[in-house]
């Protein structure tokens, strides 16, 4: 369980413009803090780490997504994520099940650009039987594009 002092230390040592591992650690800390701290403590924490509300929100989404997957799968994802919180945020819009599947197939690489991840998000998000998160709700889509025929590298 995380405490405010530890959360502030994590935020100080893990910049959101750092490596994928730093982004993930900060994001998980933010998501855990949102779950554990009472509202006033969380508001103070949010103010003290001095991250803009828009970026903070994206980091929180990343952390919530990473907390949804098992630790082994989380490590696989983090090791494949690029060093860009915006790109990771785009990838976290895909359901965790499909995100893990893409990581296991090697469809996510650290050197990919955000443009390619946007393409991947759009392709993954519009496949028949696949799911995409929107506003915390998982929606199934009716479009049919076969993942096996796609390459993202």
Which terms summarize this structure?
153 residues, mainly alpha, 8 helices, 60% helix, disordered C terminus
Q: Could you tell me the number of beta strands?
A: 2
Coarse morphology: elongated
Task: Please count the helical segments.
Answer: 8
- Helix/strand-derived category reads mainly alpha
How much of the sequence lies in strands comes to: 5-15%
- Please trace the helix and strand order, writing H or E for each element: HHHHHHHHEE
- Runs in which pLDDT lies below 50 for 5 or more consecutive residues are 135-153
Strand count, sense and barrel status of the largest sheet are:
2 strands, antiparallel
Q: Compute the gyration radius: what is it? A: 16 Å
Overall pLDDT score: 79
Strand order in the largest sheet:
1-2
Tally of structural domains:
1
How far is the first residue's CA from the last residue's CA? Answer: 38 Å
Q: Helix coverage percent of residues?
A: 55-70%
Could you explain how this protein is built, in words?
The chain is mostly helical. It has one domain. The protein contains eight helices and two strands. A two-stranded antiparallel sheet has the order 1-2. The radius of gyration is 16 Å and the shape is elongated. The protein starts with a helix and ends in a 13-residue tail after the last strand.
């Amino acid at each position: 369980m995380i405490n405010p002092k530890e959360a502030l230390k994590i935020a100080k040592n893990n910049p959101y413009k750092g490596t994928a591992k730093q982004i993930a650690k900060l994001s998980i800390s933010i998501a855990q803090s949102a779950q554990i701290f009472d509202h006033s403590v969380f508001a103070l924490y949010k103010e003290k780490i001095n991250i803009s509300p828009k970026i903070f929100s994206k980091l929180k989404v990343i952390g919530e997504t990473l907390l949804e997957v098992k630790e082994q799968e989380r490590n696989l994802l983090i090791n494949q994520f690029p060093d860009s919180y915006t790109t990771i945020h785009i990838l976290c819009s895909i359901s965790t099940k499909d995100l893990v599947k893409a990581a296991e197939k090697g469809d996510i690489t650290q050197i990919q650009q955000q443009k390619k991840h946007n393409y991947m998000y759009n392709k993954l998000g519009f496949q028949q039987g696949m799911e995409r998160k929107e506003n915390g709700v998982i929606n199934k889509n009716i479009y049919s594009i076969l993942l096996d025929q796609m390459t993202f590298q």
